[in-house]
Amino acid sequence: MGITERAAVGCGRAQTFGYARARGPVTAGLALVCGIETLTMSVLLRNWPAADAVMPFLGVCTIVLVVGLHAACVLRPHLLTADTLRIRSAAHVDLRVPLEAIASVRREERTTRRRTDGELDLPVGSRTSLTLELSAAVAHVTLLGRRRAVRVIRFHAEDGERLAQTLSTLARSPMDS
After folding, report:
1. Alpha helices in 2-133 (DSSP H)
2. Which residues are CB-contacts of 19 (< 8 A; sequence separation ≥ 6)?
3. Which residues of the chain register pLDDT less than 50?
4. Taking a C-beta distance cutoff of 8 angstroms, is the pair 90, 73 a contact?
5. DSSP calls for 122-168
6. What tens digit of pLDDT does each residue of 99-147 get?
7. Element housing 109 (H / E)
8. What pLDDT does 147 receive?
9. How far apart (Å, rounded) are the C-alpha atoms in residues 78 and 86?
10. Residue 177: per-residue pLDDT
11. In this structure, are residues 158 and 16 in contact, taking their beta carbons and an 8 Å threshold?
C-alpha cells in the first residue's frame, strides 16, 4: 500500500480530493538543499568538534520535518461527505463547511493575494484553483487558536473540476436524509 492509498483509509464514505502533488517537487528540492547544507556545515565546522557533532543531528531533524510536512499534506486530503466539505491543509487547517452553507462554487486559478477580512486563502505553490462563497460564515480557527469568521474560501484541489461539479450537484439536490 503506497502513501496515496493510505489517504483514503479511515475516511469512510467520504470522497477524497488531494492537493499535495504540486508541493512535491518543491518539498523534494527543499529536502535536498537541507541535506547539502548539513554536509557543508560539517565541512565548515570540522575544527569545532562540539558543533560538528551536533550539526548532522540538526540536519537530519530538519529533513525529517520537511518530509513530515509533505506527508501531512498527502495523508490529509480534502474530504467531501454527504453533508460536509472538510478543507484541509497539512495538520494545521481542518475547516468544516456544511454543504447547505455553500452559496456558489467556481473553478478559478488565482495567485496569492493580500489577506482580507472574511476570506481564507489556502494556496499550494502560491495558487488556488477553487473559490467557495458561503451564505453563512463559518469559523476558522488559526494555528494559535484565534477564531475568524470566513465567507469566502479559496483553496487548491488537484481534481478541482470534479470537486466543483460534485459540489454544484450536491448544492442543487435536496439534502433529505
Report:
1. 3-6, 24-44, 49-75
2. 73, 77, 78, 88, 89, 124, 155, 156, 157, 158
3. 1-10, 175-177
4. yes
5. E-BTTEEEEEEEEEEEEEEE-TTS-EEEEEEEEE--TTHHHHHHHHH
6. 999 999 999 888 877 778 889 999 988 889 999 999 999 999 988 889 9
7. strand 102-111
8. 93
9. 6
10. 41
11. no
C-alpha cell at 31: 529536502
Helix (H) or strand (E) holding 171: helix 160-172
Helix, strand or coil, per DSSP, at residue 113: coil
Residue tagged 541535506 (cell numbers): 35
Q: Where are the domains of the chain?
A: 20-75, 99-172
Instruction: Dig out the grid coordinates for 94 from the structure.
Output: 481542518
Cell numbers linked to 161: 473540476
Q: Which three cell numbers stand for residue 148?
A: 475568524
What is the pLDDT at residue 168?
A: 86
Length of the chain: 177
